[in-house]
Design goal:
This protein is an alpha/beta fold. The chain has helices spanning about 15-20, 40-55, 70-75, 90-105, 115-135, 150-160, 170-180, 215-220, 220-225, 230-235, 235-240, 250-255, 255-265, 270-285, 290-305, 310-315, 325-330, 330-345, 390-415, 415-425, 430-445; strands at about 1-5, 30-35, 65-70, 80-85, 140-145, 165, 190-195, 200-205, 245, 350-355, 370-375, 380-385. The strands form two sheets. A six-stranded parallel beta sheet has the order 3-2-1-4-5-6, with helices on both faces. Strands 7, 8, 9, 10, 11 and 12 form a six-stranded antiparallel beta sheet that branches. Strand 7 and strand 8 (about 200-205) form a beta hairpin. It is globular and about 60 Å long.
Length: about 450
């Protein structure tokens, strides 16, 4: 089976490659990397070469052949799966997405608020072109979308690819696994109910094999509840009031004042940190041996994980990530591999994915992309029914979905009115005048 990774020079590509090497089924025999930055993809190819050698042994051929494609069409032609992990505008674009809203007095974040809308406006046209080339050159391929903002990008690509594009995120599965552990259960032997949009969802049920309501017990135990990341972020009192466990990104919504203050007080934004960190890595890893490049990548990756969502942790009292919390999510690589196994007919699975709504949330259009529990097999991903959403959950979903749809419309048709709606109607933007200033500056930067 052939896999194409768009954004093949991305920093996290070695995690996907590692998962493929460790896959007992060895279903993927060839990985094609494509990136618009030749230097970055050359560095990552070097890291992959050393990683394969470390896992298969010196002198032994890798079970997963890696090649670098010269063009998008070359990368896509005849492939079975496409992982889309692009970053239009690079980390410099992310810096602008975060700084422009902050300078206007509202939150700047890669996927949330005005920053997420700006990133979506820049990314959707490229994502649509990719979808069109997939449809033309590999019509039977499945696209697994990693590209942020994942809900918006998957929404756009589904216009072309329908159900053959599936968006993924590792935040929901990490939440489920951490909550199960905190409740004293095996994460692999629980059932759960989760629904929302990408980076805006809630774990609303967690049940043991014997039918015990684990979520109810967890919410009543402050010690267990605050033993893992989401409990520390939101606090036991607020989680009990909600009666659910929110995705970590909802911290930007529920604690917007505290998080905005933390981000504005920080010496640098997350984008500025990653720009320096990754820029330094690719500079240092260019032209060195594969062993040196691999060692540099491992050290840089560990630092990246340790500093994830540092602004929200600072806003909730300041605390360091636990190693077990960092490892519990499984990562994008494991979620993507599970999707591939299921769709290829090897291993049906129940996963939290970004897919078309169908009838799961009746108040949303059937084709709207939501993030929810799905049954996945060779026929694709089918969202499962869920209990009715509470008014506050539904209201927030409807508001942010309107923002997502306006973002796609604005990007696809270059419609300024839709762009203004997308920014101004976001719950984290408090004035159409502010939204207009943000768009004006983004257009000139």
């Amino acid at each position: 089976m052939r896999l194409t990774i768009l954004g093949g020079g991305g920093f996290r590509v070695p995690l996907v490659h590692r998962a493929l090497l460790d896959d007992p089924a060895q279903a993927v025999t060839e990985v094609t990397l494509y990136d618009t930055d030749p230097r970055r993809v050359a560095v990552i190819a070097s890291v992959l070469a050393r990683q394969a050698e470390r896992r298969t042994g010196p002198g032994r051929p890798s079970p997963v052949r890696v090649r670098v494609a010269e063009s998008l069409d070359d990368a896509l032609r005849g492939t079975d799966f496409v992982f889309s992990a692009i970053r239009v505008g690079g980390t410099a674009g992310r810096i602008a997405d975060e700084r422009i809203p902050l300078d206007a007095g509202v939150l700047g974040q890669e996927t949330v608020g005005a920053g997420g809308v700006l990133y979506g406006l820049r990314t959707v046209p490229v994502a649509l072109r990719i979808a069109e080339r997939v449809a033309a050159l590999a019509p039977d391929a499945w696209v697994v979308n990693f590209t942020n903002p994942a809900g918006i990008v998957t929404e756009a690509m589904a216009q072309v690819l329908g159900e053959r594009v599936i968006g993924i995120c590792d935040s929901p599965v990490g939440l489920v696994r951490r909550a199960a552990r905190a409740a004293g259960a095996d994460p692999d032997r629980v059932t759960y109910g989760y629904v929302g949009l990408n980076h805006l969802g809630w774990l609303r049920s967690l049940t043991a094999e014997d039918g015990t309501d684990l979520l109810k017990g967890l919410l009543s135990d402050s010690g267990a509840l605050t033993s893992f990341e989401e409990g520390k972020l939101f606090g036991a009192d607020w989680l009990r009031a909600l009666g659910a466990l929110p995705n970590e990104y909802l911290h930007y919504y529920y604690f917007r004042r505290e998080t905005l203050a933390s981000v504005r007080d920080a010496s640098e934004t997350r984008g500025e940190f990653l720009d320096q960190q990754q820029g330094g890595f690719f500079e240092a890893a260019s032209g060195v041996s594969p062993e040196e490049a691999y060692a540099l990548w491992e050290r840089t990756r560990q630092e990246r994980e340790e500093t994830y969502m540092a602004d929200s942790r600072e806003a909730s009292g300041g605390w360091q990530r636990d190693t077990c919390d960092m490892e519990e999510g499984g990562g994008y690589d494991q979620v993507a591999l599970a999707v591939m196994r299921a769709v290829s007919g090897d291993r049906p699975a129940r996963l939290i994915l970004n897919v078309r709504n169908g009838t799961t949330v009746p108040q949303l259009a059937p084709e709207a992309i939501i993030e929810t529990v799905c049954e996945v097999d060779a026929g694709g991903a089918r969202p499962l029914p869920c209990a009715p959403l509470r008014e506050d959950q539904l209201g927030l979903m409807l508001q942010v979905k309107a923002v997502e749809l306006a973002t796609v419309e604005a990007a696809e048709f270059k419609d300024r009115d839709a762009a203004l709606r997308a920014v101004a109607l976001h719950p984290l933007v408090d004035s159409p005048a502010v939204a207009a200033r943000i768009l004006e500056r983004a257009a000139t930067d």
